[in-house]
Amino acid sequence: MLDRTSTPIWTGMVPVDDTALAVTDSGGSGTPVIYLNGQFATQGYWRRVIAELGPGWRHITFDERARGRRSGRSADYSFEAAVRDVDAVLDARGVDRALVVGWSYGAFVAAHWVSRNPARTIGAVLVDGAQPHDWLTDEMEQGIRTVFRRLQWLMVPLRVTGLTPRMTALEMAECNIDVGRLARERELGPVMDTITVPTRYVLASGRSFGSTGDGQEKIRASVPAVAERNPRITIHAKVASNHGAILRKDFRTIAEAVRGVAG
User: Fold this and answer.
1) Which letter does DSSP use for residue 48 in this model?
2) Is 236 helix (H, G, I), strand (E, B) or coil?
3) Where is the AB hydrolase-1 domain (predicted)?
4) Is the CB of residue 84 less than 8 Å from the CB of residue 58?
């Protein structure tokens, strides 16, 4: 049963492990929706989706460790820490069951979290992420480390604005490499197969930052097989915008998927 007691608007810090996360809870008595950000994105990226859904929903957003302007640094930026942080935020806000929406890296976190916590999950919307595909190579690992090392000089001055995380180049590179390992078919495939709650994909088109050729489309091509194996999972839409623009340009489609899962 969902708790329909009206909750006041709240913004503050939620302690977890060796850090604290900046959290915003819109309150109200609507269905709770928790939004999981892209790798180095912030909760502000969801503003259009939230506005489209409106005040009839309870929107919970947060900035991951060392992301944004207020979330604290940590000794642990692992994927497992990111999954634990979902529990920490929901527990702190007194939410027993929520609908989980994740974009990019957040879609991976969402998929793992809902597969482990079906009793706490209303359903999930995975926005251009959590697609099982073996794309990471040894050469690519080295390339990722090189790119972040070269970009470090540019990112450091932007930390005070919250536009870039307060992490070292090596920490950021390892987080990206971790996604490649998690995306492997033998790793992510079984996770998707064990999801037992209504789940919808919203897929982007074209390239994303750092991708080349038709690499992104090859990754997305793995999703129909996921949906074929698990009847709980469907492809809600494939939109025209690319990975980086999907929250900005196709927020209505994402909101529609959220309504569909809740319904």
Assistant:
1) H
2) strand
3) 32-140
4) no
